[in-house]
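# step 3/5: fold
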Amino acid sequence: MLLVYKMSSRIPLPYSPKVIEIFRNHKNVGSLEDADVIESTGSPAYGDMTSIHLKIVDIDGEDIIEEASF
C-alpha cells in the first residue's frame, strides 16, 4: 500500500507506510554522551549540517558499532 503524504502545499509525494512511520517516530536522534567517534558534515552556510555519534566496542579484535545516533 502506498500512502500520499503532503509535506507542504505543493505537490503531494508518495511514501511507503514504513517511511511515514520513521518520519513520525524518529529513532537514534540526538547525541551520545560517551561516543567514541563524532563526525560532522554538510554546509553551515546552507544550514544542512549532520553529525553522527558512534559508540564502538571491541569484540574478538574487531571494532563493532554498538550504538549510533544522528
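# step 4/5: annotate
The beta strands are 3-5, 13-15, 37-41, 50-59, 62-69.
# step 5/5: archive (pending)
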